[in-house]
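Aim 2 progress update. The chain analyzed this quarter is reproduced below.
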Amino acid sequence: MFTAVRRALTVICSAQESVNGGRILNLTAALVCGIIRNKDCHLSHIADEMPGNALPASNEKRLHRLMKNEKFDLETYFLPFAKALLSCLSRETLVLAIDGSTVGRGCMALVVSVVYKQRALPIAWLVVKGKKGHLPEAEHIKILQQVHPLIPKDAKVVLVGDGEFDGINLQAVIKNWKWHYACRTASNITLYWEDEPFVFQDMGDHTAPGEIFNAPGCKFTQKKYGPVLALCWWRRDCKEPI
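Predicted structure tokens:
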């Protein structure tokens, strides 16, 4: 497994093969093998399954040093792999998920992942200082601008996100790339149909459990962005519509 993984990584990161005599590439290949064999991304668990005769504690220290190594950078050892992954998965529709979560001490991570076999595989992220909450729309656009060059030109892309990612500037960027998207939004958001205003809650009042109420060609928010397709979906196992 190690030989096969290292050979594949050498092709992806061919320009960097000579960095530190290939030591970083060797350890990266061992890291990947540990993830595959353990099916876990905690360093201590990866260390248990890395190839070679070193003790798990020694392997874990090596991995910690690798993560702190300035030469183990995003552009060299991660983005080429992410691009290769997306290229393979683009034979079918690429489903990207964007989400924010608390990480470390007093930081927020904004992550874009590709959905594959009920797993979300991270392909790009931003970490900023801040408490739990919504990040500015500019940060949402910034992370997607990192992802866009990795996507094959002819790929069909669907971006999904929760109510944090319903900004009209973000929607405009996605539309310009000819991506599809679906995002949640608040029930009190104003919509317009032929210049007549209404809110999502009005759609919910006419939706029963198990039904979908759709309103195509709406304008979104008081800025009248659109047209968009507004959906109110009452899943049977939910207490209220989405």
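The longest helix spans residues 23-38. Residues 176 and 211 are 31 Å apart (CA to CA). These observations will guide the mutagenesis experiments scheduled for the next reporting period.
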